[in-house]
């Protein structure tokens, strides 16, 4: 389980993350949704140990994790971030990219674990290809396989669906759910697209100007009636589908 308490961070005078507290259970996906500039990436960088916050506490499986350290000499072993641009090594194959996360283990264990991870992430067929020869969705799944190689307790995904076509997006959504459930990892997934969050998350946190406005189930966010900003956000996410169904699809028997 991952727990954040009162996490706050400023860039000079600008408060990017403002007193955020939240909890994610193992095997659960929390989607953090917000407009560009709302503080999502900053929050992930704090949790992964890339940015030192001004204030706040991070707890993983009931133990406080020290997040006030020199970032050049240490990384947090139980918390892995998949950055937006994947950062795969271009001259290595998909297999080798995952294997690189396991250099401290025996050859036998590495072979076994990489094979298992490729099967779990649905990338066994592309094991000998280079990153430039595979699709965006396959690159994203390779980056996830590499991130979970050492069985972290927390996985952080920054905009995993951006740059993906709708087929790859759909496939990746169901793969992420499968991986998180099977490996029992606490997952935070950041997206600016509420529709992706509705389709993949157990809980959704709506962020604005560094603050979390609401954390709830997708259905409760969908049905929110008080907060005007959230109502507009929901409406902007689902309206294109409604428009499509009312126009092109109106003679079909769909009821949405
Ligand atoms: P998001 O990922 O939601 O788009 P970010 O966390 O990247 O948001 O940014 C939050 C706010 O902090 C924005 O106003 C952004 O301009 C500002 N910001 C982000 N990184 C820096 C930085 N390195 N220096 C100064 N301001 C930054
Ligand atoms: Mg961002």
Could you tell me the CATH topology label of the largest domain: Rossmann fold
Q: Give the % helix.
A: 25-40%
Instruction: Please outline the major beta sheet.
Output: 6 strands, mixed
Estimate the strand proportion.
Answer: 15-25%
**Distance linking N and C termini:** 36 Å
Which molecules are bound in this entry? adenosine-5'-diphosphate, magnesium ion
CATH architecture of the largest domain: 3-Layer(aba) Sandwich
Count of distinct strands? 10
Cα shape: globular
Which spans have pLDDT < 50 for at least 5 consecutive residues? Answer: none
What is the H/E string?
A: EEEHEEEHHHEHEHEEHH
Explain how this protein is built.
The longest helix is centred in the C-terminal third of the chain and has 19 residues, at about 230-245. The protein is built from eight helices and ten strands. Strand 9 and strand 10 (about 210-215) form a beta hairpin. Helix 3 (about 105-120) packs across helix 4 (about 135-145) and helix 4 (about 135-145) runs parallel beside helix 5. It is globular. The protein folds into two domains: about 25-50 and about 70-80 and about 155-250, Rossmann fold; about 85-150, no CATH class. It has a six-stranded mixed β-sheet with strand order 6-7-8-3-9-10, with helices on both faces. It is of the alpha/beta class and about 260 residues long. It has helices spanning about 40-45, 95-100, 105-120, 135-145, 165-185, 195-200, 220, 230-245; strands at about 1-10, 15-25, 30-35, 55-60, 65, 80, 155-160, 185-190, 205-210, 210-215. The mean pLDDT is about 95. It binds adenosine-5'-diphosphate (ADP) and magnesium ion. Adenosine-5'-diphosphate binds near residues 34 and 38.
